[in-house]
Design brief:
The chain has 374 residues and is an alpha/beta fold. It has three domains: 30 residues; 160 residues, Rossmann fold (3-Layer(aba) Sandwich); 130 residues, 3-Layer(aba) Sandwich (Rossmann fold), CATH 3.40.50. It is built from 13 helices and 15 strands. A seven-stranded mixed sheet has the order 2-1-3-4-5-12-11, sandwiched between helices. A four-stranded parallel sheet has the order 7-6-8-9, with helices on both faces. It has a two-stranded antiparallel sheet with strand order 10-13. The radius of gyration is 24 Å and the shape is globular.
Length: 374
């Protein structure tokens, strides 16, 4: 019996000195803290760009990074986060697939004292969220609505115009905020009859597109066109983002018998949509510089990892235009401290603004914009 005890004791001592050491001990030895980056999908250009850029920022600063893409599947994202938590992490930065579906893994994070930063999309119904970094999403919608107002000259035009709404995924908290911002501008014209929605779909729930997918937007717009616009002009489509705008454009190309090309809005500055803007098939996009958003998220996260408490004073040290807000974003459990960046309208007349960021470049013929060479 003494021999068995001695053997076990020796094994424990050996494990403490060699490969049996815990992950915490390994992390302490290599001096690296671990950041979990959770993005919705690698297939959407926007999230692929954000994920890789954030990963590079943290790694260059000496952090270990675990980057996961959850294929726009809320259940998978829950499992991805739980897996990262089990492996060991010092901070979570999450762009949610469904902001209403992450309470369980984030409760786990909170119980372990791990700070959680909501990236781009607010996460609902949990006290685990420490900070929220995004663009001013209400303003994004206002910019889209304002563009349609001005393009149709609604304040002066004697005639009425038709409009349809194509919104984002109902599980994305931002999508309803975009919609509310647009309606804040356009509602008065709908009520006065200057704008007519022939489909009758005037609420967010009626116009939401599952997973923001191009194919889903295309199918819905084809139904709308075939039912309401076989012999009528469609003057504008307020699309929440570029992937839905692309679907609307494809539906119009294949099934619209009207006259003029409708005014079509977008958001994100996706390459294919920038080509559509140059070719006159899409009117505008709202550009949100992901490098700016990522840099703010990085600065907030870095301070949390250092044991600091970011406040409104942080914006004084940032090189981008940011508003600190503690009163606008209520996630159902608390008001979340937010850092909100300023978006910009992009049309074919000011595409150089995007090139100036370094994220884009003109092609060899100086006609189209493409991703800048890495």
């Amino acid at each position: 019996m003494k021999k068995i005890i001695a053997a076990v004791t020796s094994l424990v001592m050996l494990c403490g000195m060699t490969s049996c050491s815990s992950k915490d001990e390994k992390d302490e030895k290599n001096g690296k803290k671990v950041v979990g980056l959770c993005m919705p999908s690698v297939d959407l250009e926007r999230w692929n760009t954000d994920g890789e850029y954030l990963k590079n920022l943290f790694e260059k600063a000496g952090y270990e990074v675990k980057l996961v893409f959850s294929q726009n599947d809320a259940t998978r994202q829950n499992n991805d986060i739980l897996s990262i938590l089990n492996d060991g992490v010092d901070l979570l930065l999450i762009a949610a697939v469904d902001g209403n579906a992450l309470a369980k893994p984030l409760d786990d994070a909170m119980s372990k004292g791990i700070p959680v930063v909501a990236y781009d999309r607010l996460i609902m119904n949990t006290k685990a969220i420490t900070y929220y970094v995004s663009f001013d999403n209400f303003e994004v919608g206002r910019l889209q609505g304002g563009y349609i107002r001005d393009a149709l000259d609604l304040d002066n035009a004697p005639d009425s115009y038709s409009i349809e709404f194509v919104s984002g995924d109902s599980g994305d908290n931002n999508a309803s905020i975009f919609f509310d911002g647009a309606k804040d501008v356009l509602d008065q014209y709908i009520k006065s009859g200057k704008l007519k929605v022939l489909s009758g779909k005037t609420t967010f729930e009626e116009t939401a597109i599952k997973r923001w997918e191009t194919e889903n937007a295309e199918n819905e717009m084809k139904k709308t066109l075939s039912k309401y616009y076989t012999d009528k002009q469609l003057d504008a489509v307020l699309c929440a983002n570029d992937s839905t705008a692309l679907g609307v454009i494809q539906a119009i190309e294949s099934g619209y018998k009207g006259g003029n090309q409708p005014v079509i809005t977008g958001q994100d500055g996706d390459i294919e949509n920038l080509k559509k803007i140059i070719d006159g098939e899409q009117s505008m996009t709202v550009f949100k510089n992901v490098r700016d958003e990522a840099s703010v998220a990085f600065e907030v996260s870095k301070r949390l990892l250092n044991g600091e408490t970011p406040t409104g004073r942080l914006i004084d040290s940032l090189a981008v235009d940011v508003r600190y807000d503690t009163e606008s974003y209520q996630n159902g459990a608390k008001y979340v401290q937010s850092y909100l960046l300023v978006p910009a309208v992009i049309t074919k007349d000011n595409l150089q603004v995007m090139v100036n960021t370094g994220l884009y470049q003109w092609d060899a013929n100086n006609k189209y914009i493409e991703n800048a060479a890495k």
